[in-house]
Amino acid sequence: MPKENINSGRKPNMALRIIMIVFFSIIGIVLVLPFICNFVSTFKPGNELIRHGLNLEISSENFTLANWKYLFGGTTSYFTWFSNSMLLTVLQVVFTLAISAFVGYGFAMYDFKGKNAIFICVLLIMMVPFEILMLPMYMQIINMKLVNSFAGIILPFVANASSIFFFRQYLLGIPKSIIDAGRVDGASEYGIFFKLILPVMKPSFAAMGILNTMGAWNNFLWPMLVLRDESKFTLPIGLNTLLTPYGNNYDLLIVGSFFSILPIFILFLFFQRYFIEGMTAGAVKG
Amino acid sequence: MIKTLKRFLYNQKIAPYIFILPFVLIFCVFFIYPMIYTIIMSFQKILPGENQFIGFSNYSKLFRDSVFFKAVANSFVYMVLTLVLLIPFPMLFACMINSRTMAAKEFFKSVFFLPALTSVVVAGTIFRLAFSESDSSLMNQFIQMFGFAPIKWLKMRETGFAVLLLLACWRWTGVNMLYFLSGLKNIPEELYESADIDGANSWAKFAKITVPMLKPTIIYVMTISVYAGLAMFTESYMLWGGNNSPQNIGITIVGYLYRQGIEKNNMGYASAVGIVLLALAMVLNLTQLKINGLFKKED
């Protein structure tokens, strides 16, 4: 349990505690301010935003629910983008977790020729920023006729290096005796993975699932390269088009931006622990 | 036939290769191949239907390209400043949150993490509008309270950069703080207890125990920040609404790669930009890791 209780012989300094809480509260307010600005502005007409920028002011004269009605009115592509984002996120997370766990198991539980060399390749992917390879990858996707498809977005990242690394790390902590017991019972190598190992991996799936969900929901650059048709756009790409001179639509932009944060925000409220676990997984072992 | 295949696939010696096969396939198709392809393209002029080998021309052109140097300078300055801002402060905040004096720790951890939930599109849009040049934008209202005149934030290099950095700090302070908090958990309490017995003050404990023990976390955060900083693009893309900032004040290496490759369809030249970025990132991080002595002790 919390370490700080071990030697709580000394009483914490109350004055110092208040100063620290005030200090953290001020920073906290600054960090939350952009969200509040965004929320307040959903009740103002879009041309007000273009003229005055984003601020905290709201008066009874310009208060309006029009943006929210517009959002849910069904006259925009917003909920097409929204459901595209949902579908893409679910597909990407399911495939990435399944394949990365499968691969991570191979690295954690077996000794085989070439293992170290191949594992170095996993680390290598983490060491090379994706942006360097985005052009040849994009050409590869064109060659494979996967342009403008969700498969083209998902496939290159389905054996996700950091997820493989995390699953391997997690599985190294599981006793190999489970596997030996499985073999004695006559289970096949794959049977052991699916029937015996997957159930004990549940907590690691939660952490990686959340992390990948956040990544897929917010992903922007790669989907922007792959997708062509407006009907296939995801939320970040769709929202971005609202900023361009052609699509200029601040009424939808500001309320749509705010609404697009909500799904991840709700997940965060319920699964905070896993967000933090998944996020810091890489740093723990240095 | 099928039976032999099945026996082969289920063999205990073969199974591990089946397990890692998906990774190997993806690695070859979407890493090795593009990597080789981009190296080859960097020596070519890519024309529709034919690729012409032009030796080092792309590279020699690159080293005479003033916009490219501007992009390198911007990415480099951005990276250095994110290191300066996003390592010491999150570390300090982590130590404060971790101390016995602090209360409501979980609450503040969550609040600090909130900005990381946003996509770069939403975050960029909010910052772009909050720093709009109008007198009544949030930041201009704020500085006017202190008697300053409103600023056209995104029209000048210095202020534009300040907005980029504030955006980075807003989104990543909480995440880096969490990294340091998880690093702090690994420091044995006994170290502090024996320091207490020796009569060490808080500062001495911080400098002599906390910082050295956090070294692995510092190295980790530094490594990812060097890559993220040098490869930054979408933040600038969102703030300036596309890849065009006035006088290229917000251009980055990847922004230039995107402009040449996607917007101007100049794949050979863009590939050369990518290779220079890769070299830069590798050299910086290997140097950083060597200075930090990561290669010396293998444990």
CATH architecture of the largest domain in chain A: Orthogonal Bundle
Across the major sheet of chain B, the strand order is 1-2
The average pLDDT score of chain B comes to: 90
Overall tally of domains of chain A? 2
Name the CATH superfamily classification of the largest domain in chain B. Answer: MetI-like
Percent strand of chain B:
under 5%
Order of helices and strands of chain A: HHHHHHHHHHHHHH
Estimate the mean pLDDT confidence of chain A.
89
CATH architecture of the largest domain in chain B: Orthogonal Bundle
Cα(first) to Cα(last) distance of chain A is 23 Å
The largest pleated sheet of chain A is described as:
none
What CATH calls the topology of the largest domain in chain B is MetI-like fold
> What is the chain-wise order of helices and strands of chain B?
HHEEHHHHHHHHHHHHH
| Gross morphology of chain A | globular
Roughly what percent helix of chain B?
Answer: 55-70%
User: What is the CA-based Rg of chain B, rounded?
Assistant: 25 Å
Characterise this structure:
The complex is a heterodimer of chains A (286) and B (299). In chain A, 71% of the residues lie in helices and 0% in strands. Chain A has helices spanning 14-41, 46-52, 66-72, 78-109, 115-127, 130-143, 150-154, 161-172, 177-184, 189-200, 202-218, 221-226, 235-241, 250-284. Residues 1-8 of chain A have low confidence and may be disordered. Chain A folds into 2 domains: 3-69, no CATH class; 78-284, MetI-like fold (Orthogonal Bundle), CATH 1.10.3720. Chain A has 14 helices and no strands. Chain B folds into 2 domains: 2-41, no CATH class; 57-291, MetI-like (MetI-like fold), CATH 1.10.3720.10. Chain B starts with a helix and ends in an 8-residue tail after the last helix. In chain B, helix 2 (15-41) crosses helix 15 (267-291) and helix 4 packs parallel to helix 5 (88-98). In chain B, strand 1 (44-47) and strand 2 form a beta hairpin. Classes of the chains: A mainly alpha (286), B mainly alpha (299).
